[in-house]
Request: fold
Amino acid sequence: MITLESVRRRAEADAKTYGYYLHPDQTFLNDLLEGLRKNEERYGYPSCPCRVASGNLELDRDIICPCDYRDPDVAEFGTCYCALFMRKDLFEGKTPILPVPERRPKWKQDRAYAVKPETQPEKPMETAKAVSSEPTKVKKKLWYCKQCGYVVFREDPPYICPICKAKREMFEEIPIPELPKG
Amino acid sequence: MDKVKVSGKKNKHRVLMYALSTCAWCKMTKQFLRDNEVEFEYVDVDLANEKDHEEIRKHIESKGGSPSYPTIIVDDKKVITGFRKDVIKEALEI
Reply:
């Protein structure tokens, strides 16, 4: 059982670590935390309450809270996409809290809508399932931060290095030699 | 697709809202429409089935919007992405 309290504690701890503040309106904040709790319960991970999740971990990895887009969004707009995390000036009411445009690439958003449009009309469920399993193949790569050496095995490098805060441009792929099959 | 209908005095425009049941902005938008007595229908996309998902995405994109939530479609023409109060007020003449 995932409790609202545990979701809240995790968000508070994360905000503290990264120097962010949680949404000052307690009702709004509770709605977000409850959304995270519900997503964790139904998907097994706390994906962003304000985005459509596919339910497939590999496809949703970038929108698991705190999402990949949080740091660049807070830097540019003052809050993350759902407004759970924000900068001090917004928290204190000195800057208004406004909706943030979606930074997540369109092709990643589209993968959450499992069935492809061209195969959609009136197909039996089995065919639809077969098609929907196709986009779940995510090609993961090894990336390292040239500034601090942090290594990550994911589809894309992070926008900002979680260790040294270097920008995405500082990440370089580490080529993985292909192993002979069999 | 199951739509939830919310009755209101202001029914000059046909208002359809695509939302997420977990999204605080969506909840705020629903409340805003209720507070302004706007009649509207909504679909919680995360609770809809896969077939409806695709239909919703196609519907939003056919009107020139992008599938992020809340999305409000006014009179099956104008798309408003996000809880942008002023834009909603202007489009719904409230």
User: Anything to note?
Assistant: Chain A touches chain B through 31 residues (CB under 8 Å). The helical segments of chain A are 4-18, 26-43, 57-60, 70-77, 88-91, 106-110, 125-132. The domain at 139-182 of chain A is CATH 2.20.28.10 (Rubrerythrin, domain 2).
